[in-house]
Write a structure and sequence with these properties.
disordered N terminus; single chain; binds S-adenosylmethionine; alpha/beta; Rossmann fold; seven-stranded mixed sheet; two-stranded antiparallel ribbon; Helicase, Ruva Protein, domain 3; 9 strands
Amino acid sequence: MMARRNTKRGARPSAGTPALPPYLERLGVQPRKALGQNFLIDELALTEIAEATRVPGVDTVLEIGAGPGGLTEELVGRFKTVVAIEIDEELAEITRRRLGGGGGLTVIAADILQFDARELLTEAGAGPPYVVAGNLPYYITQPIVRKLLESDPAPARTVVMVQRQVARRMVGGDGRESLLSMSIKFYGTPRALFDVPASAFWPQPKVDSAVVAIDRLEEPPVPISSEQRDSFFELLRAGYASPRKQLHNVLPGVLGLSNAAVGKTLEAAGLDPALRAQHLDLSDWAVLFTTLNERHPGVLTLREPS
Ligand code: SAM
């Protein structure tokens, strides 16, 4: 994790459990565990997430999982238009009543996975450019991240709170890449911002959390066309099919090639056959993709490179 001033190894200083804010005391509803309802009550963390979301020239933010509106309130003070999505109608109504009235806040009671960004922005009378913020419901972190990466129009920046372990996988790094970090790096640049202890939430989750920002790239950083994208991801999934195995052991089975053919392809791509998927960066995968298609056209079943 990126180091922060006056903190140890990027962790937020823990000042014990923050007091429950009065608006949550008055809520009178039981947080629903099944919907991942752990509300962030640490004011500094709320402020820092909202600040990190700001991008010059962008005044619209889409918030995912607004809950009772702790983060929403911070966003309303910083953006002209806030489109807050919350699946729980009761909480959506609470946030509407508590924060509605002034400014450009629209709270939509909806399942984020059932709608795309364009529909949600349009419903609020907004459009691109926009950014995304969210203290995500952890039970569906990955489908939400995937949806955001593939969304059109894409957010200029996404700042999300996720489980700490997932944050590490999202950011990856030298020798620690994951299928998730590779997928994210195809579309953007992930950065670990800061860690947040379980005590910053009410009720406290069983895991610690961390905040990650993803800045969108205009184009993928590797020469893979949009027609080739699905095949490229097919290769990534093949490589990560058994992440603990060396590539020369995992690829023959998943690609239906002989050990010798895979070994020669890896060598032709300039890759040591004993490497594991986690050691390859996105450019390594792109070179392997091109080499594989040259030497074994059709082995990736989806599409041929043009
Ligand atoms: N933003 C608030 C905060 O920071 O305290 C609440 C965050 S809480 C971790 C996640 C919120 O996402 C919950 O309020 C939950 O009801 C909502 N949620 C869960 N599944 C959702 C979905 N599919 N679509 C939209 N919101 C969802």
